[in-house]
Amino acid sequence: MLALLALALGQDPHPGQVLAEGSDCAACHVVPGVATPSRTGSCDGCHEWVRAVSADPAKRAKAMQVFPRWARYEKNVVSYFDVPDLGASFARLEPDWIARYLADPHDLRPQMPETMVRLGLDPAEIADIAAWAGKFRAKVATTPAPSSANVARGEQIFRERGCGGCHDFGARSITGAAPAAPDLRWARERMSNDMIAAWILDPRSVSAAATMPALGLGADDAVALRDFLVLADPGGATAKATVATATAPSTPPRWDDVESRVFGKICTHCHMDPAQNEGRRGPGNAGGFGWPETGLELQTYASVVQNRDRIVAAIERRYAEEVRDHVKPGEVPAVVSRPALPGMPLGLPALPAEDFALVKAWYAAGAPE
C-alpha cells in the first residue's frame, strides 16, 4: 500500500519498506506508514476480533450460529494481544541491532508466550529493512557517559519507581507483570546510552506511540537509572535444551483427537485449506514472512496423513530453536545453529511433549479416522 502510494507520487519506495510490507510485518504489528491489513490478513487483528465478539453477548450468540467451532476459537485464541508497535520500536532501537535481531531473533519478553518469527530473508534484505527502520529513529540529547558511581542510586530508583511492576531485569529482578514490557537486560544492546536516558525521561518525546508512562524523573535521576541498566550485572544462566519426551497414550488416538489438540488448534491458522476459507491459504501454505510457498494445508485429514514426514520434521525443528526463542524469566537465550527452515509453530512455543507424542502415536497407529 505504502509502496504504491510512493509510486503514485513519483517516488521510489525504500527497498526496506517494500520488504517489510512483503514480509507480512503488518500481520502482527502496527508498522509506521504501512496500512493495517484486513482482519483475515492480520494475526493480532483477528484475535482481537474474536475477543471483542466474545465479550458482547449478542455478537457472541450470532457467532455461535455462524461459526460451528466458535467455542474452540475462544479457547485457543490466547496470543498476539500485546505485540509491540513498531513505530515506538523504530524510534528508539539501533538499526545495527535490528538487523542482528531479524537475522537471529531471541526471546526479549519471557512473560509473553509468542516471540518474533524468523523471517525468510537473506542478509542484504534484512540490512535494507534495518536501514529503513533507522529513518524513523528519534534524535535525542547527548548525556554523560555511564558511570559506576550511579549504579546504586539507579537501582534504588528502579525499585522505588516500581519498574519491576512491568519489566524484568535479567535474574536480578523477576517481577514483570506486563507481557509486552521487554526484559531490561537487553536495553544496553538495543539502544544507545543517550536514547535509554531520553526514553526513561519521557518516552512520548521519543515516540508518540510509546505505551510506557513517564516516571516523573529529573535528568540526573534518569541518567542514574540508565547507568544501572547498562552497567549492573543482570545475572541469569543460559537456557538449556530439554528433551521432548512423553509417554504415548495407552489408547490409539483418532483424527478427532489430534485435530482438536494440535492441527485444528494451531496449525490451521497458517496452513489453511482454501476450500474452507474462501480461497485463503494462509502464509504457511501460500508463503509469507519471507518464506516461499509450501503448498501444505493442515486442515484436512488427507493432507495431514500425506505429509507425515514434513510435519514431524517441522515440529522437531522447533525444539532445537526453543532455547533461544522461548526462555523462562531470568534465563539468557542460548546461541543455536539455526536449521535452514524454521521449526513449527512459527513464533509460538514448541508443541507440548504430550501433544507431540499424541501425533506420533496417531501416525504409528496408521492415522485412524
Give structural attributes.
369 residues; mainly alpha; Cytochrome Bc1 Complex, Chain D, domain 2; 3 domains; 18 helices; globular; disordered N terminus
Mean pLDDT, all residues:
93
Helical residues, percent? 40-55%
Reading the helices and strands in chain order gives HHHHHHHHHHHHHHHHHH
Query: Which percent range describes the beta-strand content?
Result: under 5%
Rg for CA atoms: 22 Å
Number of helices: 18
Secondary-structure content class: mainly alpha
Largest beta-sheet details: none
Describe this structure in words.
There is one protein chain. With 369 residues, this protein is mainly α. The protein contains 18 helices and no strands. It has helices at 2-8, 15-22, 43-54, 57-66, 70-76, 86-92, 95-103, 123-134, 151-160, 187-190, 193-201, 203-206, 219-231, 255-263, 283-286, 301-306, 308-325, 353-364. It is globular and about 70 Å long. The two termini are 44 Å apart. Mean pLDDT is 93; it is low at 1-5.
